[in-house]
Amino acid sequence: MTAFILKRLGFAAITLFAVLTIVFFIVRVLPGDPALAILGDQASQAALEALRVRLGLDVPLYQQYVEFLGGVLVGDWGISMVSGRPVIEEIIKVLPATLELTIASLILGVVVGIPIGVWSAVRRNKLPDYLARIGSLLGLSFPAFVSAVLLLLFFSIQLRWFPVISSGQGGSLADRLRDLALPAINLGLIMAAYITRVTRSAMLEVLNQDYVRTAHAKGLAFAIIVWRHCLRNALIPVVTVVGLYLGILIGNSVLTEIVFNRPGLGKLIVGALNQRDYTMLQGMMVIYTLIVVMVNLVTDLTYGLIDPRIKYS
Amino acid sequence: MTSPSHSPRLSRSAYLRIALASLAAGLFKAFNANKTSWIGLAVFVIVALLALLAPVIAPYDPLDQNILNRLKAPSAAHWLGTDYYGRDTLSRILWGARISLTIGLMAIGSAMVIGTLIGMIAGYFGGRTDLLIMQVMDVLLAFPSLILGLIVVAMLGPSVANLVIAIALTAIPPFSRIARAPTIAVKNREFIEAGHALGYSHPRLMFGHILPNIAPEVLVMGSLWLATAIRVEASLAFIGLGVNPPTATWGGMIREGFENILDSFWLALFPSLAILIVVFSLNLLGDGLRDAVDPRLKGEQ
Q1: In chain B, which residues have their Cβ closer than 8 Å to the Cβ of A273?
Q2: Which residue of B lies nearest to A121 if distances are taken between CA atoms?
Q3: What is the CATH number of the domain that holds A243?
Q4: DSSP character at residue A265
Q5: What CATH number labels B43-57+81-300?
Q6: Which of A63, A86, A109 is the last residue of a domain?
Q7: Is the ipTM value over 0.90, yes or no?
Q8: Last residue of a domain, one of A86, A113, A148
Q9: Which residues in B lie closer than 8 A to residue A255 (C-beta atoms)?
Q10: Is residue B118 within 8 Å of residue B98, measured between CB atoms?
Q11: Which positions in chain B have a beta carbon within 8 angstroms of at least one beta carbon in chain A?
Q12: Which of A136, A155, B114, B182 has the greatest CB tally within 10 Å of its CB?
């Protein structure tokens, strides 16, 4: 177990290092001079030179690379070219909002997706199955911003149940939940569509196995067979998919945050793109990579919790 | 999937015809296994025809502004209403379909070719080559595709070619994975061994003998990824990284419609439905076919 964790940690470190290297060079090969981009055409040569020194752009590339890697490790992710504040500070300020949204949608996706997936598999080729299949296929056909716009149109503008613009800045718990509701429903239903599909196909595979027939034969209640015996064995692919689709969830959260005007990483990255804030973009890529690498690690470790037969080697 | 039987004396064109025929037969069987695929295909073909014929059937010029006629609700003259500049929404949706389909088809076409090649090389040669290639692909896969696309387009600038590059980049790793697994399964079969014994070259075995066997799976994933590509293109346009205005793109139209959502909701609604119809039809098509080509799901129908 320890050896396995160490191995996975090693792989995570390699992935992180590789992506950081790619990120560093992508940002460096961007056309245009960052100093000029910040100060504009009217800036004097001396001012440009001074800013380049401040941004650390005056030293050779390999030195910048070493400093960049070292900086990432100790939490020095550079200074935002636009706001002048440390990148990591700006990211940490909005990170809770994005995590809140992501985790809420993940929970919603699991709570809605797994029961429907199981039900659909058990009633295969019956009406509930067809409905679940069409529904989930429809759910994953929605670009996140399209569903967000439609939800906003219907629930906020037509029915006025929810605020059109989230405040997201503290407030009472009830306010926060109201702000969170529509964005989380938007992402959660898309997540539920993915989870329904993978739960269904995993359950179908398990339901055909011999031990299920044996359980039937010895007179075990159908509900116990399905929920205790089959679901547990079907969960591994489900966890894998949840881990994999977290990347999609992160991408979709960008779109959701824009539509609902919610603070978070999504609004931060779009702002950084519009203002050509390269250090901020670099920091955003680092944080996204960190999140994805960590999720993959947790996904791998979860397998052992679900299925004790899995030996970590 | 049957391996095409042939003698080494068969001419190249005759062999190609056999390979294509068996591929077509395989796909036809897959279509019939799940009728919903036909519905998906029919809807997608209609959309593609509408896009192709846009210059002929669009009632107005998609860029024609008419300030006196702006933000009009759907009417007999403008079936789907007009936008902030008085442009006809229906015409813009028809022309927007061309952008979506062009970018999607070009991006997925190139990702399919490059990704399949990479996956076949990894699976065919195995060992260190496989390890190295798949490690690189895993690193690329680790990155959320929308974020990757966002950064690439922001770097290179929003044009049709750059959007194709950005979307293709995000789709190459999955295609290499899809192509690798069946390549490993096929390369150990007797007919490949026989090819080795006959002294066939690696490229000949890979393209002549393995490719036809893995093509159905790759093509099916192609239809599902085309749906994803169209979704990503629209998402990028919605963020403001689509083909530059005033060119009509679905994502861009929703972005503009979103600004007037309180009084003219149809501006965001109709292009949303257009995206949904196309993506859903492709998912319906690919999903039905996948059930048929996925050996694990055999006997489910």
Answers
A1: 150-151, 154, 241
A2: B300
A3: 1.10.3720.10
A4: H
A5: 1.10.3720.10
A6: A86
A7: no
A8: A86
A9: 146, 235, 238-239
A10: no
A11: 136, 138-139, 141-147, 150-151, 154-155, 227, 231, 234-235, 238-241, 251, 254, 258, 261-262, 265, 268-269, 272, 275-276, 279-280, 283-284, 287, 296-297, 300
A12: A136
The CA distance from B175 to B140, in Å, is 12
Q: Beta strands of A53-195 (E only): which ranges?
A: none
Residue B23 CA neighbour count, 13 Å, CB half: 19
CB A119 within 8 A of CB A200: no
B68: distance to nearest CA of chain A, Å? 26
pTM, two decimal places: 0.83
Question: Could you tell me the residue ranges of all domains in chain B?
Answer: 43-57+81-300
CB atoms near residue B190 (< 10 Å):
8
A292 touches chain B (CB under 8 A): yes
Number of domains in chain A: 2
Residues A224 and A234 in one domain: yes
Cα B260 to Cα A155, A303, B241: the distances in Å are 17, 48, 20
- Dihedral over Cα of B251, B253, B258, B261: its sign: negative
Q: What is the pLDDT of residues B59-75, one digit of tens each?
A: 777 777 777 777 777 77
Mean pLDDT across chain B = 81
* Average pLDDT along chain A: 80
Q: What is the mean pLDDT of residues B226-252?
A: 87
Please identify which residue in the block is written with the tokens 């965001």: B268
A248 touches chain B (CB under 8 A): yes
Instruction: Burial-class residue B105 by CB neighbours within 10 Å (0-12, 13-18, 19+).
Output: middle
Q: Which domain holds residue A234?
A: 88-306
| Dihedral sign, Cα of residue B232, residue B234, residue B238, residue B244 | positive
Largest pairwise CA distance in chain A = 86
Q: How far is CA A102 from CA A183, A190, A191, A308, in A?
A: 10, 12, 10, 28
